[in-house]
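Please, structure for the following, as tokens.
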Amino acid sequence: MFSCRKKHKYNVYIRGAEVLTRRATPIDKITPEISAFATELIESMRLFDGVGLAAPQAGVSKRIVALGVPNKDLATPGVAPGNTLLLPLMPMVIINPEIISFSNEVDVCDEGCLSVPEIYAPVQRSLAIAMRAQLLSGEHIECHCNGLLARCIQHELDHLNGILFVDRLVPEELDKIASKLRVLEKYGRKVDFKKTISV
């Protein structure tokens, strides 16, 4: 006897989608619906092979972010306490995250984004941050992070404020990818500005 199971669709919205330009709203209470969405957000991040995914990228304008940063950073000398706290919990979600301070020291590294697929460009970010957020368990945390984790958090919190990494590029770097962005926009119009994986 055969059994049929309806496939579940996971969407990531791409540049051109209106939801990516809005400031997301805070989450007042961790409800069963929020917990279920958190699980779906983590699964979307895994399926699309990302190290982070903000709720607006999944079409939901709420302040929740999935993180899946590799924990190899734990072996790096000078690793921040927040990395030691959070990396073993990956994949995880953070709720209503807020960066409360940025280091003066910065670096420039190539970034990519699931909402700007197959396009990479150098972005300047602070090397370290202090962040506060709530975990899905309800626990409130405040910690210092550095390395890839700090960069990923800055990138994902930009999404919560309607900012894509390409919005932070200096003009000459933006010019270098302008033709690729035009191709992406043309593609986006054909697919309602979203990519879908069905499982």
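The chain has a mean pLDDT of 95. Residues 188 and 194 are 7 Å apart (CA to CA).
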